[in-house]
Design brief:
- By secondary structure, this protein is an alpha/beta fold.
- The protein is 58% helix and 15% strand.
- The strands form four sheets. The protein has an eight-stranded mixed barrel, surrounded by five helices.
- Helix 3 runs antiparallel to helix 4.
- The structure holds ligand C2E and calcium ion (2 copies).
- One calcium ion binds next to loops.
């Protein structure tokens, strides 16, 4: 008589486990799916086991039922251990390493079991049901145990080999399965009356569930996707194991502004809407992609290696879907998604860089097209950032810096009467390096002071030159960075350079940024006053970006306020217009002139002209250009 109670207990435990896993939403991704398969196979085995044992106990005479239950059990049970090995490969992210030969080798024990079960009706090698309706083990029955044992050996190998990438907690979770299953297998081999195996299996699955499939570790409550920490873990593990990884990064660039419009409850529903949208695409094509929510409007979709290369297609679909207007609570909402494909580590070397990149990719101009990380974030660029200090030093000693000029249009005079000097660095190895990238580094290293002196000297040389005289340019705007403004003998240095070239103070206008102004310390105030006393005028740069500090704008006597391009480019809406109108009239009331930066089209030109602004700077007229081009440009425009 076989004892069935252990099997019944296994069925109950595994069924509860299946339900709780489904209810907790742990269904997405390869690992969760494999785990669910393990549970289901366990339930099937336990049911078949108890059914067959029950039939044996009562010596059921219906041979079909007798045979069916035994075959079902042996087959389901024999697939437990190979599935466990697959599970381990997924946990350790080494499944991609499965080459054909290895996979044939790994399938061999299971295939042998299946083959011997297939021929069993004719040979009776595995089991037979004799004329007394008794279940009798055949001579090859141990084959099934050998197979299970081999898979357990492979599992042990994986645990030892990849223990460090799997992580301690996970290793313990899976590791505890091995002694449990082994013990149960051995006991049952020698004491077939005790149906212990499935019970041990259920207990092992319970352990795995509590140690590995923990939603609190990896789930993002807001979206039901995996969270940021899970993403970093996953990507790093893939990179460590050299698993090819293709990800799609999504950043809803207007997420913050939507959030300020919509209350928290509604925001959650909106969130749900676009996560469902992404999920549906995923599900429709079954790309086996795993979704991560990195926070705010930033998502990462990891494509399974079996679909490697499908990134551009999926990204295009997601991009199209996200760009369609969403009907939300009688509002029509337009998302501005940045969708980017990246391969790791080819494009982006590690998980932290990936997350940072996903967050910052919105600083690229919005085109609405799918972006390629290779284009934006080449590995080269990463090296570049690391080597910037020496690149800057090299540029200083080899005279690689150049000064470009961007014409500034005077609306009242209908001509160009000033320009902004902007530094350019073209490195022989890395090509064009934008100033936004190297200026902050130069500020930290102190190289900014030599750069600043170089720019001013170039500008003064230009102003002093005969070709400048007839251009009709009254002054040149020169940028001063935060660090420069804090320098003790800044005034002396500037006046010295200007004196050397016989430049009048009115010919130079220094631009300082709003952040500089709001962080202002005594040294800065002192510098600015001294320079102002000597007749040099100042512009407040990038107005509208930082925290507009009323105290600063009114205490320092700026000649000009430059409206920042981000402030200018916001699509006109009612509130924005009100803010803009009042900002313009406030600045005018303070007696300051206004330069509008970043004007790229005629429509913006008209808007700011109508508002009564004084100067326009932007691509609409010209990009920053080299000195000789600038001379040509001004000559042709100012003469006309
Ligand atoms: P900034 O002072 O705000 O300079 C204006 C930036 O806007 C320039 O970028 C210019 O090319 C860009 N720009 C002008 N018109 C348009 C337009 O219509 N559309 C768009 N999208 N952009 C426009 P650039 O040359 O890349 O300079 C970036 C920043 O680097 C500057 O911002 C400034 O903060 C800094 N910088 C540049 N040259 C110097 C310098 O000689 N010294 C210091 N300290 N900083 C500099
Ligand atoms: Ca500037
Ligand atoms: Ca600016």
């Amino acid at each position: 008589m076989k004892l069935l109670y252990f099997d019944y207990a296994a069925i109950v435990i595994l069924t509860i486990l299946l339900f709780t896993t489904l209810i907790r939403g742990l269904t997405k991704g390869k690992l969760n799916r494999c785990y669910i398969e393990l549970i289901i196979i366990g339930i099937v085995s336990a049911i078949a086991d108890s059914a067959s044992a029950y039939c044996d106990n009562i010596r059921l005479t219906n041979m079909l039922v007798r045979n069916l239950t035994h075959y079902a059990y042996l087959l389901a049970h024999s697939s437990n251990t190979p599935l466990l090995v697959i599970y381990l490969m997924i946990v350790s992210d080494t499944d991609y390493k499965m080459r054909r030969f290895k996979s044939i080798l790994y399938t061999l024990p299971f295939a042998t079991v299946v083959a011997s079960l297939c021929i069993n009706p004719f040979t009776g090698y595995i089991f037979t049901i004799n004329d007394n309706y008794e279940y009798v083990r055949g001579p090859f029955m141990p084959l099934l145990y050998v197979s299970a044992f081999l898979y357990i050996l492979i599992a042990i190998y994986y645990l030892i080999r990849y223990g460090s990438t799997i992580g301690m907690r996970r290793s313990i979770g899976i590791g505890s399965m091995v002694p449990l299953l082994l013990a149960a297998n051995l006991i049952q081999l020698f004491e077939p009356r005790l149906l212990l195996e499935m019970f041990a299996y259920a207990i092992a699955m319970l352990l795995v569930s509590s140690l590995i499939h923990r939603p609190e570790d990896i789930l993002d409550i807001e979206t039901g996707f995996n969270n940021r920490a899970a993403c970093i873990d996953d990507v790093n593990r893939c990179i460590k194991n050299k698993k090819p990884l293709e990800v799609i990064l999504i950043n809803i660039s207007n997420y913050e502004s939507l959030r300020s419009l919509i209350n928290a409850g509604d925001m959650r529903s909106l969130h749900k809407m676009f996560t469902t949208l992404i999920n549906n695409i995923n599900r429709k094509h079954d790309y086996f992609a795993e979704m991560f929510h990195l926070g705010g409007g930033v998502f990462c979709l990891e494509i399974d290696y079996t679909w490697y290369g499908i990134g551009p297609k999926v990204a295009a679909q997601i991009n199209d879907e996200l760009q369609k207007p969403l009907n939300f609570k009688s509002m029509e909402i337009q998302l501005a998604p940045y969708v980017c494909i990246a391969n790791c580590p080819a494009d982006i070397p590690d998980a932290e860089a990936l997350v940072k990149f996903a967050e910052e990719m919105v600083s690229a101009p919005y085109t609405g097209d799918v972006l390629l990380a290779t284009d934006i974030f080449q590995k080269k660029r990463y090296d570049l950032i690391r080597n910037l200090d020496s690149i800057i030093e090299n540029a200083l000693s080899n005279h690689l810096f150049q000064v470009y000029y961007q014409p500034i249009y005077n609306i009242n005079h209908e001509s160009f009467n000033s320009a902004e000097a902007l530094i350019r660095l073209i490195d022989p190895e890395y090509g064009f390096i934008p100033p936004d990238l190297f200026i902050p580094i130069a500020e930290k290293s102190g190289a900014i002071h030599r750069i600043g002196a170089y720019v001013l000297d170039e500008v003064c040389t230009f102003i002093e030159s005969p070709e400048f005289k007839d251009l009709g340019i009254d002054y040149i705007e020169v940028n001063l960075s935060v660090a420069q403004c804090m320098r003790n003998n800044l005034t002396k240095e500037i006046l010295e350079i200007m004196g050397k070239h016989n430049i009048k103070p009115s010919q130079i206008n220094l631009e300082i940024t709003e952040t500089t102004a709001s962080n202002s310390q005594e040294a800065l105030q002192e510098n600015v006053r001294q320079l102002m006393d000597s007749g040099i005028k100042f512009s407040l740069d990038d107005y509208g970006t930082g925290y507009s500090n009323i105290e600063r704008i009114s205490s320092l006597l700026f000649d000009i306020v430059k409206l920042d391009k981000t402030f200018v480019n916001v699509a006109g809406n009612n509130n924005h217009d009100i803010v803009l109108n009042h900002t313009v009239s406030m600045i005018k009331d303070l007696g300051m002139k206004i330069v509008v930066e970043g004007v790229e089209d005629a429509q913006l030109l008209k808007r700011f002209t109508d508002l009564g602004c004084d100067y326009i700077q932007g691509y609409y007229f010209s990009k920053p250009i080299p000195k000789l081009d600038f001379i040509e440009f001004i000559k042709s425009k100012n003469r006309a």
